[in-house]
Amino acid sequence: MYGSTMALVKVAYKRQTTELSLVFVLGGMMFLVPVITEKALALTDAAAYAPAFTDFSNLRTHLDDGKFVFGPTLSGDRKIIFWTTTGTGIFGGDETGYVQADVTGYGIVTFYFSNPASGRNTCSIVAPITLQTECTITQGISAYAKYTLVRH
User: Fold this and answer.
1) Is the pLDDT of residue 15 over 90?
2) What is the rounded distance in angstroms from the CA atom of residue 49 to the CA atom of residue 70?
3) Which among 126, 125, 119 is positioned nearest to 145, based on CA atoms?
4) Which of 125, 119, 143 minimizes the C-alpha distance to 51?
5) Domain boundaries, the chain
6) Which of 95, 100, 108, 126 has the CB geometry, 3.0–4.6 Å to 66, for a possible disulfide?
7) What is the mean pLDDT of residues 74-84?
8) Does the domain at residues 41-151 carry the CATH identifier 2.60.40.10?
9) Following DSSP, what letter does each residue of 61-128 receive, concatenated?
10) How far apart are the first and last CA of the chain?
């Protein structure tokens, strides 16, 4: 009767999963202890869109912090680049880096992102002057970044 038992319970909310460890000790007193899993960590989903009548090629990447958990990869028509990053620390962590690609007829474009463990998420684009650029990123630990290139 005075033993201890342990069970894992998964709680899913939106795209986050947290595991709680139920520990029964000394006559049924219950303690909840969070068990951190990668799915509970921050992440950044991103998509970059090529200008009309062009496509992407020759993808390159660099991360200062975090890791890629998906991509970067090109869509079948090579007009969209998709990627997802997450922090690497025990309790999450920063995600900072860039994806770079060649744009047919225009040259090299670099898509920067930063999803820090604390502070504001940011994104930016460095592109040839002949392209208009727009970058938006949501705030919070799970961010979505959208990069758009338009011909002048």
Assistant:
1) no
2) 17
3) 125
4) 125
5) 5-38, 41-151
6) 95
7) 98
8) no
9) EEEEESEEEEEEEE-TTSSEEEEEEE--BTTB--EEEEEEEEETTTEEEEEEEEE-SSS--EEEEE--
10) 75
